[in-house]
Amino acid sequence: MLLAAHGSSERSIEWVTRLPAVVAALNGEVTRLTGKKPSEAIKARSVTQKPSSTVPGRTVGLDEPLLPSDALVRYLYAPGELEGGRRQATDPIWSLTTHTVRNVVQRGGQPALYYLTDGPRHGFLREELLIFPPGTELPPDRVLTRPTAR
Fold first, then answer.
1. Which of 18, 32, 37, 90 sits at 20 to 30 Å (Cα–Cα) from 72?
2. Domain around 145
3. How many domains is the chain partitioned into structurally?
4. Domain stop point among 9, 31, 54
């Protein structure tokens, strides 16, 4: 928000003067999630969340059906995993390589963790996997490989 004027060294500090009014306005509005104003919720010892108004399109968590052990998937990159630093807008979100599910671990009261062949050693939740339907024809490897920086 701190912007330098084009061609000059002057900086705009308008946001500094407007910020208290913006914060006060946001703190004075009732939120749908709690049914309270944030200024009231901050003072409360505990705040109860209302049930979500959106229903997921599939079963989530403990009730979801398990993926078969031969499912073909890509995994969601962790922040900074691809390049070892910050992500760029053009970086892929999903792994460029496909993997099969090697092992599924489900412990009482917790969602299933999926471990992949030739993938990262840690487990993934179902939401972190992009599942390919059986019979999906993938592009050739030369299309999927990421060009190296010059």
1. 90
2. 55-150
3. 2
4. 54
Res 116 pLDDT > 90: yes
Q: Which of 45, 121, 103, 26 is nearest to 113 (CA)?
A: 103
pLDDT for the residue numbered 2: 47
Q: Where does residue 12 rank: exposed (0-12), middle (13-18), buried (19+ CB within 10 A)?
A: exposed
Scanning the chain, the segments in alpha helix (DSSP H) are 14-27, 38-43, 141-144
pTM flag (> 0.85): no
**∠ CA(60), CA(66), CA(70), 5° rounding?**
140
Q: For residues 94-118, b (16+ Cβ closer than 10 Å) or e, as one string?
A: ebeebbebeebeeeeeeebbbbbee
Q: Do 63 and 13 sit in the same domain of this protein?
A: no
Residues 103 and 115 in one domain: yes
Q: In which band, very low, low, confident or very high, does the pLDDT at 115 lie, cut at 50, 70 and 90? A: very high
Distance, CA of 77 to CA of 86 (rounded, Å)? 12
Structure tokens at 23: 């914060």
Separation CA 100–CA 118 (nearest Å): 8
